[in-house]
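Subject: design request, 94 residues
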C-alpha cells in the first residue's frame, strides 16, 4: 500500500516527502499473525530488516509456530538476528 499512499499530492498531505518515506523511517513493524513467507517478504522489501521485529499474539497465537516461522525465514543470519531481537534492543534501549 505504500506506493498507493505516495500518489497523494503534496498539496493534500502538506508533507515535504512522500508518505512512504515517513513510514519506512519512523515506524517499526511486526508480522505476528501473518506467518506467511510471501507476506513477510513483501514487508521486508518495503521497509527493510532494520524496521521489522518478531512478535507473537500470545495467547491467541502459538509461540512455537511463530518461532518455527522465524527460523525458516529466507534471510541472512544477520537479518534474522535483527528481526529476532536486535531491532527491539535498539528501539527500546536494552
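Subject: RE: design request

Done. Sequence follows.
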Amino acid at each position: 500500500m505504500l506506493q498507493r499512499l505516495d500518489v497523494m499530492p503534496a498539496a493534500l498531505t502538506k508533507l515535504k516527502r512522500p508518505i512512504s518515506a515517513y513510514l519506512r523511517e519512523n515506524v517499526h513493524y511486526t508480522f505476528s499473525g501473518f506467518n506467511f513467507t510471501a507476506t513477510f517478504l513483501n514487508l521486508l522489501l518495503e521497509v527493510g530488516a532494520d524496521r521489522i521485529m518478531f512478535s507473537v499474539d500470545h495467547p491467541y497465537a502459538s509461540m512455537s509456530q511463530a518461532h518455527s516461522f522465524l527460523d525458516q525465514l529466507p534471510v541472512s543470519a544477520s537479518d534474522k538476528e535483527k528481526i529476532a531481537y536486535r531491532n527491539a534492543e535498539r528501539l527500546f534501549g536494552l
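The chain has a mean pLDDT of 94.
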